[in-house]
C-alpha cells in the first residue's frame, strides 16, 4: 500500500500523503505543523475536513470504473477532540455504493485516539 501517488491538488499542497487506496478503502497520513493551526493553537477544522474528504474520495476512486469521477455532494465532520502538531492518520471506507451515489465513512486518529469522524455522500460523474 505504501508508495501510492499523491492525492493531488489542495490536499497534496497541505502535505497529505496517500499511504494506500484499494478495494473501497484508503489511508492518508499527515503531519500537523504550526502552519496548520488556528488562532487557538489547535488543528484548523478546515484542514481536517480536507483530509477526510480526500481520503474518502480516494476510497471511492478505488472502486470506480474508467470515466467515473467521484464528486462530494455531502460532507459531515464530527470533531471529537482538538488536534495538535504531530502525525495523524485518516482511514476511509466505502460503506454503500449505489448506481449514482456512494456513502463513505472516515476516522481520524492522532496518538492512538479518535480526533474526528466523518460521513460523506459522493455522486459519480461520468466523463
UniProtKB/TrEMBL annotation:
- Record key words, sorted: Hydrolase
Could you tell me which residue ranges the Thioesterase domain spans?
41-115
CDD domains attached here? PaaI_thioesterase (cd03443)
GO function terms (MF aspect): fatty acyl-CoA hydrolase activity
Q: Which InterPro entries match?
A: ACOT13 (IPR039298), HotDog_dom_sf (IPR029069), PAAI_dom (IPR003736), Thioestr_dom (IPR006683)
Q: Which domain of life is it from?
A: Bacteria
What Pfam families does its record include?
A: 4HBT
- Matching NCBIfam families, A to Z? unchar_dom_1
The entry's family comment says: Belongs to the thioesterase PaaI family.
Q: Indicate what this protein is called per its UniProt record.
A: PaaI family thioesterase
Amino acid at each position: 500500500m505504501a508508495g501510492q501517488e499523491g492525492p493531488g491538488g489542495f490536499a497534496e499542497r497541505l502535505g497529505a500523503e496517500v499511504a494506500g487506496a484499494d478495494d473501497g478503502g484508503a489511508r492518508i497520513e499527515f503531519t500537523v505543523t504550526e502552519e496548520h493551526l488556528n488562532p487557538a493553537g489547535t488543528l484548523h477544522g478546515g484542514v481536517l475536513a480536507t483530509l477526510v474528504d480526500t481520503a474518502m474520495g480516494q476510497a471511492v476512486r478505488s472502486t470506480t470504473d474508467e470515466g467515473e469521477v467521484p464528486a462530494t455532494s455531502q460532507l459531515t465532520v464530527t470533531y471529537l477532540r482538538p488536534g495538535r502538531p504531530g502525525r495523524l492518520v485518516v482511514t476511509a471506507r466505502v460503506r454503500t455504493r449505489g448506481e449514482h451515489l456512494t456513502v463513505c465513512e472516515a476516522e481520524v486518529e492522532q496518538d492512538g485516539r479518535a480526533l474526528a469522524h466523518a460521513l460523506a455522500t459522493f455522486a459519480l460523474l461520468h466523463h
